[in-house]
Specification:
The protein is an alpha/beta fold and 408 residues long. The protein folds into two domains: 72-128, no CATH class; 143-407, Glycoside hydrolase/deacetylase (TIM Barrel, Alpha-Beta Barrel), CATH 3.20.20.370. Helix content is 38%, strand content 16%. Strands 5, 6, 7, 8, 9, 10, 11, 12 and 13 form a nine-stranded parallel beta sheet that branches. A hairpin with a 2-residue loop joins strand 3 and strand 4 (154-157). The longest helix is centred in the first third of the chain and has 26 residues, at 22-47. It is globular, with a radius of gyration of 32 Å. The protein starts with a helix and ends with a helix.
Length: 408
């Protein structure tokens, strides 16, 4: 023990020792971390594959093949490279097959592609769909403006000034079977479309035009898909999300019509839903067991549907639905599905349900079946529909059954 130890205040020596190295070590670690962060950021920027640095962007497919009738030497270097390096399953014969010799050269549009890393600019000619094909017809044929009313939520249906209703204007004509004017009629509806573009296009391609397609209002390309369905000969319906039991745990989607809202609030939501796309003959419920059982909430919606010149289709899932009674009191054409075809979504059960629907049509002269857009359902409905006429059955769009329901 030294003299200093005896004269120093108690505890002072220990405190000096405890402060000796910790702050220095901590400051070195902090400086090291701060220096490491920019180094990691610079390394990520150099190695990363995102030239836009996280900016919002969208990927658009562009066909870099040389436009028909153009010389390959006139094409941009990038287009020549793509045309010269064929991927598996893609050859010149396939290109020639997709563009017959007697077909007029397709119109093209020139777009400029900028390389995000180098800034190099490249002009590429892309084909523009001709008015004659399905995609071109769909995009180039807007809905007749006589049946459109502009609102804060976009265009919604209206009865034309001459009294023609959208349900009549957009209805698909029915051709009776030759020699069988009283053939049993069957209407088929495939719903839940419009959200998945691939599923919707599969339904449009595989199902005959007499099958009605019901679209949800939420898809990013639902307006274009609706136009393509109409161009392919299908009648379309707008599926309106309505309050089910168990809401909001069981939620159909944004702008759902609710029993807790005022009639004005529900009509505001209905107009928003109606404005997502155009050209439909009527509306159908999506879920909605609680809503369709409440006359106080449901009646204003069906009155507005009638006022807009549309039909209403009940999916038949709710035995307590008051839709039929309200429709009759408001001169609203009404149809109701007799059977949900894919309530058990297996191939065997779907075929069995189609058989029961056929029996109902032969007994009563008319039957309506509804299905979701499951691939197995689309496949078996398409297969069944191909042979329906040979069995003496007439497939009709839903508007034909709604008109008959109104008269009865």
């Amino acid at each position: 023990m030294t003299a200093d130890d005896l004269s120093a205040p108690l505890g002072q020596h220990r405190q000096a020792k405890s402060r000796r190295g910790f702050p220095v070590v901590l400051s070195y670690a902090t400086i090291g971390l701060l220096a490491l962060f920019p180094a990691v950021f610079v390394l990520w920027a150099m190695v990363g594959e995102d030239p836009f640095g996280g900016e919002p962007k969208v990927a658009v497919p562009i066909d870099l093949r040389v436009a028909p009738g153009a010389n390959k030497s006139d094409a941009p270097a990038g287009a020549q490279a793509v045309a010269g390096s064929q991927s598996p399953g893609h050859d010149d014969a396939a290109v020639a097959k997709s563009a017959p010799a007697n077909e007029a050269p397709a119109a093209t549009r020139t777009v400029t592609i900028i390389d995000g890393k180098t800034g190099a600019r490249q002009e590429v000619a892309i084909p523009v769909p001709a008015p004659g094909n399905a995609a071109g017809a769909a995009d180039a044929a807007p809905v007749d403006q006589r049946f459109v009313e502009m609102t804060a939520h976009g265009p919604i249906p209206k009865i034309a000034d001459d009294g023609v209703r959208p349900a009549d204007a957009f209805a698909r004509p029915v051709k009776p079977l030759p020699g069988k004017p009283d053939a049993p009629r069957i209407a088929l509806i495939v719903g839940g479309l419009g959200v998945s573009a691939s599923t919707t296009m599969e339904a449009i391609a595989k199902l005959p035009g007499a099958v009605t397609l019901a679209l949800m209002p939420y898809g990013a390309n639902v307006e274009r898909l609706a136009a393509q369905a109409r161009a392919a000969g299908h009648e379309i319906l707008l599926q309106v999300p309505m309050e089910p039991f168990g809401y909001p745990d069981n939620d159909p989607g944004p702008q759902t019509l609710l029993t807790s809202l005022t009639p004005e609030q529900n009509l505001e939501r209905l107009h928003w839903l109606m404005g997502r796309f155009q050209g439909y003959v009527g509306v159908a419920d999506a879920m909605g067991a609680r809503f369709t059982a409440s006359e106080q909430a449901f009646a204003p919606v069906l009155r507005e549907t009638a006022k807009r010149g549309l039909i209403y289709v009940d999916d038949g899932s709710n035995p307590r639905s008051v839709a039929g009674r309200i429709a009759g009191a408001n001169n609203l054409p009404f149809a109701k599905a007799d059977l949900m075809l894919d309530s058990v979504p297996t191939a065997a059960e779907i075929d069995h349900a189609l058989g029961r629907l056929e029996m109902a049509a032969r007994e009563r002269g008319l039957a309506v079946g509804m299905s979701s857009a499951l691939p197995v359902a689309i496949e078996h409905i398409a297969k069944w529909a191909k042979s329906a006429e040979s069995r003496g059955l007439l497939l009709v769009p839903i508007s034909a059954t709604a008109a008959k329901a109104k008269q009865s």
